[in-house]
């Protein structure tokens, strides 16, 4: 397990995607009341690329669903929950900084809102429309564009969040994109939408 993965599992954290996306998941392997899932990551859709060095993500493009957003850094709030992007008119995605940077070996995690309260749609409003083979391009601070190919898209009940599949060790560079989905009651969504993708190329 990488040091970044250990840090992710060392915290007790809940990602509460607010503004119409409440509730959430934990990054430890055994969520309270629910055993961690042992579902393995999905088979990569493209040929895996060599891992990249550490470089913080600064932008994210997903052409098939019209996403082109800055990426901010997210850590832990004082109550040990995962920070989420601020609810603003100009919604942005956020990288969980206790996960590997995109392109490093392991699962890099980027969170986004599906809705942002009175401001309307969030940056990940169409995340569930992605399909295997679609691309997500992460712009890194060092100028590299890391291209990930979608392997699978899963909608899961928040009560059954697949912690191991999302945060568990993997032997290649992978990306997780997470938002809320499913039926909505008030400001709460029942499910999480999770995109699993693997690094297939990179360019300066």
Features:
single chain; 204 residues; disordered N terminus; globular; Sortase, Chain: A; mainly beta
Would you give an account of this structure?
The protein is mainly β and 204 residues long. The protein has a single domain (3-203), classed as Sortase (Sortase, Chain: A, Beta Barrel). Helices cover 6% and strands 35% of the residues. The chain contains two helices and eight strands. An eight-stranded mixed beta barrel has the order 1-2-3-4-7-8-6-5. Strand 1 and strand 2 (67-74) form a beta hairpin. The longest helix is centred in the first third of the chain and has 8 residues, at 3-10. The chain is globular and about 45 Å long. The model is unreliable at 1-20 and 29-41 (pLDDT under 50).
